[in-house]
């Protein structure tokens, strides 16, 4: 009889599925750990990736006291390793507490993900010396200067009348500035000033006089995509309108955070501007943004018209957000409306005070003769992103361009698991799906840019504020080089260091998708993965991003990886009606695409033995766990 027992072959074991095993809210019990692991073993799982999610301060369950990094937490981890070892299960540990992405309380603001910030000031040149400048945005008091530039302003932009907003030298008109504001009956406006409509509608501005408009900003409500689909019409008499531009949304990731979207178009002279919208042309499931897809609805806070030339959709092109937008043309921004490098004057600061001019100013006669100048003070600060789903190990996200900071992250979290008894059960170092936004600055960015791109970035810093430099074509080229450098650094620093530590510890490295969140190539980081991973969702068309699986499959093909993992059956609105018959067609499809190792999402650790199904991930996921 014993000779008839068939043990799994190496090939069969290699293809056996895993699961994500989440410890929720510090609610952990040893009896539950044992039952969970035995359940995994009995159904043929090869192992799991252990991830503690949130902490006891987020929610009180089971009188949980296993807060991450606490003595009780490590006691439960030790028991888990011993049990998994005895059962022959393999474990993976994430690079940080939570599942997104790599941060902790040991990360200082200076070691965290960075972004470029600035202030914009217009003064008379005779007031320059000794001028006190506003300090740009800072996170928790942390801010460092990059450079400060003065730019002469041309008279054609000058205007004597009062101008709305923070750049008094440039003309701007928003809803509050319109002499008369009209909007159609299909549109409502709530107490917070948010316009809403699901039917065709329009908003009419009256600027009071014929004005020149070169760009506009749309201020969305939330991350609404429909407000980025407006048709802009213009008229001198309020009766006969001509089309100025059809706004087209940039391709966007689900963390494309921004307070506004900037559109550039050829200079248009008009008194009246009408913004028209219709749901025709979009449908649920066809848009990029997760929350916007169930029904096309317009939600809008404001529209700001300006006579200032701007780079089209510069917010994404600077790497501040994952977006793909059309280039700025010379028709939109002619060369004469661009700042020329020879006009740039670099200022030296002492604290917040202008103390001198760094470069030669002999040709800048207006400094002596008087004239308006625009001062752009650039610096960097933390993005403020945290590993948001963490508990006791929650903190700022580490700077992905800072190798020493990445090492610190690994040593303060992952390494601590390796120091525990029975840690030989840990076979994998995992980096989950990218959910910590992006960064457009970081350690050594200026030098990295010059080394890789062959020229100096400092004179082009105004591009970070959307200011056109040299020409529209040159501006787009430099902005692309910024994004290429961002991509180079996240791969050559962050992913390279993670791979290094995996090799040092003898662990295989697993990476999920990086785009469309971080401004980077969606495939290149798989070069540093032993085990590429994608993700597919069940009954969740708003969240299922086709590139997640296709990136992992393509990355595996390009870089010669023979295992393609998939976080499978993630579900945003589970209703407990799933059956094997429902799941199989989707699973077959993913196998046919090239996936060959499945990770069920999710097995939420159930600390109870008398509750079924017990713990959940706040209703998210297909609960592939004991007692369900």
Give your account of this protein's structure:
The structure is a single chain. This protein has 628 residues and is α/β, with parallel strands linked by helices. Among the domains are: 290 residues, TIM Barrel; 137 residues, Galactose-binding domain-like (Jelly Rolls, Sandwich), CATH 2.60.120. It is 21% helix and 26% strand. Strands 7, 8, 9, 10, 11, 12, 13, 15 and 16 form a nine-stranded antiparallel β-sheet that branches. The chain has an eight-stranded parallel β-barrel with strand order 1-2-3-22-23-24-25-26, surrounded by four helices. Strand 18 and strand 19 form a beta hairpin. The longest helix is centred in the C-terminal third of the chain and has 34 residues.
Over all CA atoms, what is the radius of gyration?
Answer: 28 Å
Oligomeric category: single chain
Distance between the termini: 34 Å
CATH architecture of the domain at 16-109 and 386-447 and 471-604: Alpha-Beta Barrel
CATH superfamily of the domain at 16-109 and 386-447 and 471-604: Glycosidases
Task: Please report which band the strand proportion falls in: under 5%, 5-15%, 15-25%, 25-35%, 35-45% or over 45%.
Answer: 25-35%
| Nearest-integer average pLDDT | 92
What best-fitting shape do the alpha-carbon axes yield? globular
- CATH class call of the domain at 16-109 and 386-447 and 471-604: Alpha Beta
Main sheet attributes: strand count, strand direction, barrel closure: 9 strands, antiparallel
CATH topology of the domain at 16-109 and 386-447 and 471-604, which one? TIM Barrel
Low-confidence stretches: 157-169
Supply the number of helical segments.
Answer: 11
How many beta-strand segments?
26
The helix-and-strand class reads: alpha/beta
Query: What percentage of residues falls in helices of 4 or more residues?
Result: 10-25%
């Amino acid at each position: 009889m014993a000779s008839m027992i068939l043990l799994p072959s190496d090939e069969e074991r290699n293809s056996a599925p895993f699961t994500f095993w989440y410890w929720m809210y510090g609610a952990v019990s040893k009896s539950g750990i044992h039952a969970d692991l035995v359940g995994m073993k009995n159904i043929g799982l090869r192992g799991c990736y252990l991830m503690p999610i949130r902490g006891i301060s987020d929610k009180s369950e089971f009188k949980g006291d296993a807060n991450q990094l606490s003595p009780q937490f490590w006691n439960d981890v030790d028991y888990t390793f011993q049990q998994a070892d005895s059962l022959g299960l393999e474990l993976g540990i994430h690079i940080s507490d939570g599942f997104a992405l790599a941060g902790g309380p040991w990360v200082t603001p200076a070691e965290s993900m960075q972004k470029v910030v600035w202030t914009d000031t217009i003064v008379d040149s005779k007031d320059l010396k000794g001028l006190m400048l506003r300090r740009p945005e800072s996170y928790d008091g942390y801010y460092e200067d990059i450079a400060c530039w003065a730019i002469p302003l041309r008279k054609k932009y000058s205007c004597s009348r009062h101008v709305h907003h923070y750049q008094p030298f440039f003309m701007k008109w928003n809803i509050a500035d319109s002499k008369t504001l009209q909007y159609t009956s299909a549109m409502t406006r709530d107490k917070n000033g948010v316009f809403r409509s699901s039917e065709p509608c329009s908003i009419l501005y009256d600027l009071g006089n014929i004005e020149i408009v070169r760009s506009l900003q749309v201020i969305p409500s939330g991350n609404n995509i429909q407000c980025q689909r407006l048709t802009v019409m213009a008229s001198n008499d309020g009766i006969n309108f001509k089309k100025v531009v059809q706004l087209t949304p940039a391709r966007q990731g689900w963390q494309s955070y921004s307070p506004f979207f900037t559109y550039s178009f050829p200079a248009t002279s008009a008194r009246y501007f009408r913004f028209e919208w219709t749901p025709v042309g979009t449908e649920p499931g066809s848009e990029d943004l997760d929350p916007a897809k169930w029904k096309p609805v317009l939600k809008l806070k404001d529209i700001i018209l300006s006579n200032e030339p701007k780079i089209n959709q510069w917010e994404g092109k600077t790497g501040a957000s994952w977006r793909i937008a059309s280039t700025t043309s010379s028709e939109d921004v002619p060369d004469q409306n661009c700042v020329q490098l020879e006009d740039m004057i670099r200022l030296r600061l002492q604290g917040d005070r202008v103390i001198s001019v760094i470069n030669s100013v002999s040709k800048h006669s207006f400094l002596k003769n008087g004239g308006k100048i625009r001062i752009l003070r650039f610096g960097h600060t933390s993005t403020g992103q945290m590993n948001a789903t963490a508990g006791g190990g929650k903190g700022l996200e580490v700077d992905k361009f800072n190798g020493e900071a990445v090492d610190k992250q690994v040593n303060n979290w992952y390494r601590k698991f390796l120091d525990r008894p029975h840690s030989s059960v840990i076979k994998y170092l995992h980096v989950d799906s990218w959910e910590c936004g992006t960064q457009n600055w970081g350690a050594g960015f200026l030098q990295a840019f010059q080394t890789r791109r062959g020229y100096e970035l400092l004179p082009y810093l105004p591009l970070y504020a959307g200011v056109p430099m040299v020409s529209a074509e040159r501006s787009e080229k430099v902005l692309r080089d910024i994004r290429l450098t961002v991509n180079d650094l996240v791969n050559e620093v962050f992913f390279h260091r993670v791979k290094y530590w995996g090799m040092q510890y003898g662990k295989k490295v697993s990476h999920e998708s990086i785009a469309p969140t971080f401004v980077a190539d969606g495939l290149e980081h798989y070069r540093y993965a032993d085990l590429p991973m994608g993700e597919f969702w069940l009954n969740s068309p708003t969240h299922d991003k086709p590139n997640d699986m296709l990136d992992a499959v393509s990355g595996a093909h390009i870089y010669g990886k023979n295992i393609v993992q998939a976080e499978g059956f993630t579900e945003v609105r589970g209703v407990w009606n799933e059956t094997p018959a429902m799941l199989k067609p989707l699973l077959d499809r993913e196998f046919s695409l090239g996936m060959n190792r499945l990770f069920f999402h999710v097995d939420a650790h159930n600390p109870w033995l008398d509750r079924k199904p017990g713990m959940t991930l706040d209703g998210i996921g297909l609960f592939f766990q004991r007692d369900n």
